[in-house]
């Protein structure tokens, strides 16, 4: 399993993060099998969130036993100091751990949401206080949507976040405005040694209304191995990228791990050829639909 340094944090994390949103609505037995598979394949970077259903509870039985061997990140979607602090403590209790390596302000994808977090009495104050108490080792920020790169660039001007987590895939990067804003964020993140981690690497399109949904993801994911290989190759080809989160369905995780383990067997041109030829490939966030 390839590993990369998580920004200025002294940790080498697996380039694929175990996206624990996939555990939100599964049994403990199924969760244990997926977590064990991850550990057996060298995945040591686990990313969850307080609002991912029962994910934190499902992680607890195994993660609490291997806590010192993994990088553990969670998130709070609260916007006030009081509510965020309560949620941080709740997350620790649910996962049966004393601390997390990374606490992320979640779903900060617009300047409006950033303003709420960084305001006096906002969630950022709770994160800072938790870090001072030693229950949080680092503070990051996450965001969805096409405004996430611009928002996170502004966030890095307001506070020295250790990590950012935002969408990236071949289609989104083909959109000129997104590419420009993502590149600007990457440039500033590299200057500050901030770890850039991404989501939605294998997202294909929004689910069609009335269509069957065989996966737990809120969008239609790619599920063919060759296409997943190309998606993974694309995101990992960014030299400054620390890693990417697996999709929110446990059935896709082995295919993603397989693609990571074979990273390098496909070149940039082949990956681009595969992804550019796919019919129905678009953004899941409602932006323009033509590839530049």
How many domains? The number is 1
Structural class: alpha/beta
> Helix fraction?
40-55%
What's the gyration radius in Å?
18 Å
Characterise the protein shown here.
With 292 residues, the chain is of the alpha/beta class. The protein has a single domain (3-276), classed as Alpha-Beta Barrel (TIM Barrel), CATH 3.20.20. It contains eleven helices and twelve strands. The strands form three sheets. Strands 3-4-5-6-7-8-9-12 form an eight-stranded parallel β-barrel, surrounded by five helices. A two-stranded antiparallel ribbon has the order 1-2. The longest helix has 17 residues, at 176-192.
Key descriptive features of the protein:
292 residues, alpha/beta, TIM Barrel, eight-stranded parallel beta barrel, two-stranded antiparallel sheet, 11 helices, 41% helix
Task: Give the gist of this structure.
This protein has about 290 residues and is of the alpha/beta class.
């Amino acid at each position: 399993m390839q590993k990369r340094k998580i920004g200025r944090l002294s940790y080498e994390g697996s380039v694929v993060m175990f996206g624990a949103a996939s555990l939100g609505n599964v049994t403990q037995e199924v969760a244990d099998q997926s977590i064990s598979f991850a550990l057996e394949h060298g995945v040591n970077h686990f990313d969850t969130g307080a609002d991912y259903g029962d994910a934190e509870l499902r992680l607890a039985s195994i993660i609490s036993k291997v806590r010192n061997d993994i990088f553990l990140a969670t998130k709070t979607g609260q916007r006030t100091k009081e509510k965020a602090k309560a949620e941080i403590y709740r997350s620790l209790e649910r996962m049966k751990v004393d601390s997390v390596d990374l606490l992320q302000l979640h779903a900060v994808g617009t300047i409006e949401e950033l303003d709420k977090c960084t305001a006096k009495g906002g969630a950022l104050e709770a994160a800072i206080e938790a870090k001072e108490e030693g229950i949080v080792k680092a503070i990051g920020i996450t965001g969805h949507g096409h405004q996430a790169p611009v928002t996170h660039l502004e966030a890095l001007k307001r506070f020295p976040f250790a990590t950012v987590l935002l969408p990236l895939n071949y289609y989104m990067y083909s959109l000129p405005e997104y590419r420009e804003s993502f590149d600007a964020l990457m440039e500033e993140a590299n200057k500050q040694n901030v770890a850039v981690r991404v989501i939605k690497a294998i997202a294909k399109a929004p689910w069609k209304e009335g269509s069957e949904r065989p996966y737990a993801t809120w969008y239609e994911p790619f599920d063919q191995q060759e296409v997943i290989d190309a998606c993974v190759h694309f995101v990992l080809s960014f030299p400054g990228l620390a890693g990417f989160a697996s999709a929110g369905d446990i059935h896709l995780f082995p295919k993603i791990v397989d693609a990571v383990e074979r990273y390098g067997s496909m070149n940039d041109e082949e990956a681009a050829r595969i992804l550019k030829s796919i019919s129905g490939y678009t953004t899941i966030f409602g932006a323009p639909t033509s590839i530049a």
